[in-house]
Amino acid sequence: EYNLALGERRAKSVLQYLTTLGVKADRLSIISYGKEKPAVQGSTEDAWAKNRRSEFVIVK
Fold it and tell me: What span, in angstroms and rounded, lies between the C-alpha atoms of 5 and 32?
């Protein structure tokens, strides 16, 4: 699916950026949900823009 692949590319870009900041790659993992878990429901440009995102969780 297009959105799933797009999310995967976005996640890989964020992972690459975080590694350039010094975060070790073995401490990072990525997952793409495509349309499965939108942050905002709706079919408007604003909703779509808010759903083009990357999120991360810090685990100690």
Answer: 8
pTM assigned to the model: 0.75
Contacts of 51 (CB under 8 A, 6+ apart): 38, 39, 40
Q: Which two tokens stand for residue 53?
A: 């995102």
30: domain CATH number is 3.30.1330.60
Reported as a pLDDT band with limits 50, 70 and 90, residue 57 is: confident
Asked if residue 56 belongs to a domain, the reply is no
Q: Which residue has the tokens 């969780």?
A: 57
CA distances from 36 to 17, 40, 53, 58, 60 (A): 25, 11, 13, 22, 27
Q: How many CB atoms lie within 10 A of CB 7?
A: 23
